[in-house]
Write the structure tokens for this entry.
Amino acid sequence: MTLKLCVHKKVPSNKQLCEEILINPKDIPNAIVGDVVEIYHPEEEFSTCTFIDSRLLLQIRILPEDYQPKDTVVSIEQTIATAFQLKAYKNVIVSKVDKDNVSVDLAEVLFKDQYYSRSDMNRLRESMVNTCVYLNKKMEFCEMRAQVNELWSRGEKVTCGFISKDTRVVFRSSTSVVHIFIQMSSEMWEFDINGDLYFEKAVNGFLTDLYAKWKEQNCLHDVTIVMFSRTFYDAQTRDEFPQYMQECVQQDYAGRFYEDFYRIVVQNERYEEWTGTIKQLRKIFFEYRTRVLNYHRRPGHRVPDARNSTATEGNFLETLNMTLNLFEKYYYDRNFDRTGKVAVVITPGAGVFEVDRELTNITKQRTIDCGVGSDLVCMGEQPLHAAPLFKFHSRTQGMMLEVGDDYNVPHWMNHSFYSSKNQIQFYSNKTFVPRIKIPPEIFEKQEKKEAPPEQEIPYNTEEDNFPIVDYDEYDAQVWKLPKTVNSISYGKKNRSYHQSRAERFSSQSRPPQTFVEARLMHSARTRTISDNISCLPVEKKPEVDVMQAISFPSSSSTGDDLSTSVGCYPVHGRGHLDSSDEHVLGARQVAGSAESSVSHMKYLHNTRRHRALINPFQPSKMQFKMTSNRRRWIHAFPTDPHGVAVQTHHVQTYSYHDNTEEEFELCDLTEETIQAAHQAVKARNKKRACRGLGDNSDLSNVEEGAVSRVSQSHDLGRSLYGGSFKDPKHQRSFMWGPTGEQEWTAELSTGTDWRPLDNTDMSPTESRLIKPILKADLENSQNFCAGISVDWKSLIMPASLPITTDYFPDPVSLNNEYVESMYQLLPDSNSLYYSNPPESDDEKYYRKKPLSAKQVFCEMISQRLSQGFQLIKMMRNTGSSLTLVANTSQRVVPGSSPQVSHMSGLKRCRPREETAEEVYLSIGRIFHKLSRTGSEITVTRYRPRHQNAQLSYNYRYRFQAPDSFNYDVSWSEFHNEKLENYNWNYLDQYICTQGEGDFGLMDSLKFWRSRFFILPCNNPATKKISEGHQRCDIYEEKTSSELKQLIIGFTRYLEILNKMKRTAVTRQTNCIHKEFLDKNPGGIPMPDTRPDEEVLCMTSPSDKVVRWMLDDVCGIPMLPKQLGLPHKCFISAEIVDWFYYHVKGVKSVKHVMNLLQRLLDDGYIVHSSGNPDHKVLYGFYLYTFKDPKSKNDPASSFNTLFQNDWCEVVFVDTIKEVGPSYVSFSLDTMEGDVPGPSGPTDDWRLQTGLNIWGQTWAQQSATLLHKYVNVDVDPQCKSDRPEWATARYHAYYSPLCAFELQVQWMVATGQILGDLIYNWARKAASCGFHLLPVPCDPFALPSAIDSDPLRGPIFIPLKVAAIDQHDSIFVEYDKSTREQKLLQFQEAIIKRFGFIESSVRVLANRNTKSSQGAEDYHQYVHCTGGMFIIIEDTNLAKANHQPIIETRPIGVKPVIESQPINAKKRENNSSLGNLPPSRNMKSSVSYGTLGKKSFSELRKDYIARQTSQLDCQNVEWEIEIGFLWSWNFMLSRRWRSGNTGDETFQDNVLRDFRAFCSNEDDRLYEFWMEYKAQNII
């Protein structure tokens, strides 16, 4: 239908004008709401423009009856019409289209400066279903804002389309956490084949291009850049190293000693311009190698010669695990403007690494489970074998004869080979592009005309001159299988192989007599899965039959199992191989692991079976079982026109058919072709059946199904022309890369296409590059994957782990390999809400409406998604009970998992009650099935019958943090997580109860948490330093009036947090003696001359005091009626001034509290909760009035839920007296009272009558320092679900200390909660404070458990020698007094620089437990929130004399002084660290991670390592006096203001603080003299 086009602007206040399309229902009679229409100009119908570029698809969401334009028009929102070049007032064709024909396969959604949990992503995805989208469309849902970035349909990029329930949605973030690791191996100082230094190629090339693309896409990532390397030492024993080096030196599998170094260049920075880091990296590069290789050289000590490792020998996996230690704690320190995490490793090599097998297992499983994107960018040339490639270490080198190297191609890594601009320009004029850098040794040997290395191998070495068995004769006996044995037949292939071996040996002039000769004469062969054979043992006695000693292999190993041993066999009676042996073993011509698995040994012994080794040059020859790990990222990739998931930067070797006639000819099969396909499939299935890989019982069905698939699919052409059919029930060919569907070939490359050029693309230079890489036309759908050298999209806008996947085990595997468990939930029966409904509004405030079964079911799905689970698609509910039955005739479509083909053929079981919903989810080898029938929810869990072992790897290294001068020793532990141990039953109960009752938040639930500090702002010293003042020790102590204003401001801020609505009038303190006070502005004079009849006194009756307090004219300030609070409520801290004005004799806060306590004891006031045991506390505590004679007073009823919904805080009296002024008297203490240095001695839990064994989780979790309160996350009901959170906050507040507020949640939308916290931060400024995020672990001690491996504090020594010539102060006092005096002096220093205590010092009652120990008292935070400091005492006691905590590694027992580690014990504890078993460990002070230590001792050890040269004979060091300094890395640009300062401000404070502590310009000495004059020492 032809209509006239109009455009309209979006008006938020007008519902109609907010729609994308407006149309009169009379113009399209058959149109209904939800239809999709196609709009385009008539002249484009026969235009050369393609459909996807010129035609717009929109969905009709409303058909307003009142929309009656004069003409038959269609109105489109103006921005949409402009984007699709639709001209207003022109005719357009509007027609309905079928939604299935215009649905998209993949939609990429881009967002920025927001936090999306996986639960949020799924809810946003569901909101997109059944809607039309177009490029750059802005979407908003539950405060989440995003836009459409890309759309794919049938292998082509489109501009608009329909989102169906089968559309895969990928979320990408332009504000992610990016860790960039630069491997500083020896190749970095070498030149590539084009003459470029590899470091220049990495930094000037790759990083420069990456930064430019970040800037082009307006990305603002949180970036950390680390340079890392491994240093080898030429030493034979550990004794050759000085004692100060032995702590970190490690020994690898080959006996080589090494150390790993990490240099953090940039840490958690968010720059808009990154070019400055290029200069910084160049500067570090010039001195990196020299400094690392000579770092330990000191006068008087001999250090073994050091060399830098190659890229292959480097610490690649260790580096990935260090970032995984941080990424796994994604729920800690949660910020609300970052989503996504990616680790990028830049290596000068070709992607080949020698790795440890156990560490590979740990890294793979952690990377997959955590959903982290790992990108490897290689600067070297792309090899002709599969990459990246892992070569496993041989722990039995010298103990076994290895026939072949064991390789692994990790599918869980994304890799790219970077091509610089010079490289592209150079190769654009060449017909040959090299794929390997020839080693210089080859040219040297050619010049010297040396013979090949294998010809120089001596044959008469003593160790290799041992006789070998005539295995031809031996094989002839072994392979005589008994007729009764029918387990496995190896087929003709193996027999022909042995026959050819016999013929080859018989033709030799001289049979091999030694192992060396056999290896030299050995040739390569193709290896398949059938080569998974065991060691063939020889009988122990001649009289025993050979056949009794034969062991047959069972089922073949899977590709995911990396723990199986390689093809090697024990050699008894041999020692370690010397260097000549290593040269012999490395001289064979066959690369990879395609060697024979039969060793040349005279005697073979029983060992476990071995799997087939991988030939990296022909990985497609291997077959691997498809697993859920290989399908975890499959839905993040677009598919080509054939439905195969591809990576856009990996060029395929086959070309698609652009000519439709050719494609028709390909698919138009003749009878001969179909008959040939029948024969091929039949022969293949018979071959599989005889090998034990097929299903003999239903072979005919397989054949028919396979042929039917052939005749109906475009894939037939591919299968007949070089492709292969895959059996969906069993194993499939090796699929390379993260997609799991790209079959590797040698021609597969990143950035170059080796196909012959078309005539139109042929250049005069006859280049075989299809097009310049940097000018690739991605819009051409037929070549969309050609011409990209690096996966820039993954590096610029990292993708989050897809919400969906398509793998589920087949029924046989599910029954044999998994354990099923089940539990049920009845959400509606868990609450008495409906049986005993609340009556009043106040009661409704505390009693939450329970969740329905539908809401609980949806939230259970959301929580599993948030913990890394994925929804399994291809599940179809037919409206009855479903069972999983394999259907072998189901068509296998490329791009879908063959393992789930059975799921689309589901059969109906016996009729029963209809299942409303059923969902399958998976993570790793764990599967959950959630089903809901009415109000009953059933959870079925499938866990592997044989669980993965708990592996642990202990790692020791040196790292240099920013602003630090040394490479400090640090420890870390890498271990895989036991996901099957997660307590899902507890979490589901937590959801049902909404966090109330006994089910609260536990650390094992991995709940999200964000920690904040409330700090005073508007300090003039901060502004002065920011304006350029040179000195930073200009902060002054606050005056009494400033302290008073802080308490008033904090009271107002707590009102905001409690959602109290008050006006300034309700806060005023009215006084009947206003004229008297006007005459005495300094306060009430002492003695008080007012007559007794005009004032109250301390002995006035309680009823009289209450009448004065309730007076309408001069009464106390009351709170207005608040939902959830009784009438006539007041805040205890607010009425202190009123008592001062009206009660004669009141001199302190304690006088007021005693008077109020008397009123409470007499029954005139009570806590607002109605708790009769709640005493009067000074602070933000709510009290109300009641009638002591009335027994039915509502205030007398005890509300046990009150404390869960109201934030109440005790105010701490300051220690220092601040004068007689009435504005500050409330901070004074009573005469005769001597306050302690640690604040209040009364436990608030005892004062409030808290029942620690109460019914609520908040009561049970309360500690001396912290309380808990519920947070109303969504007061405006913006979300589509009920949401809640919990706040953990300080129970005490002092204007001289910071106040902590930690938000914890499991059920909350990130953006809604973030907006709430941003609102808190904005309102804090009006109260004289600023709310800032701080890390949960500000100092991240390297040796502490679960700390960030790449963070650590900076030690700043205090130069005491400048104060006293004896290098010590306060020596005239005893030890304890000296430490106290020294602490006070250090506190005075940091207070001059603007630091305040991070918490109130509280003294725990001996009868109650406290969560705060004494060693936490000396932590300080800067008033700007950007820096932290710890003051340590100088005493270093032994570990067994201090309170202890477990330190890394967890699985290792504490080490006793001078006791060596038992290697067997360490192995039994599953510690896979690389410490040699012969190492004798000294005391736990030197090697603290292998023992038990307190937090204080860990800090002291850290200081000692930075400041002292370790003496192995002296265990108890004298800790140098100083400070531990740390940065607040969470203080991003969004939180910065004039009160926080910028990075320059922070750098200036650190610089000046170091200068002060080092006594530059005698500043420290002058401060010491001033301090002595003001204090009695």
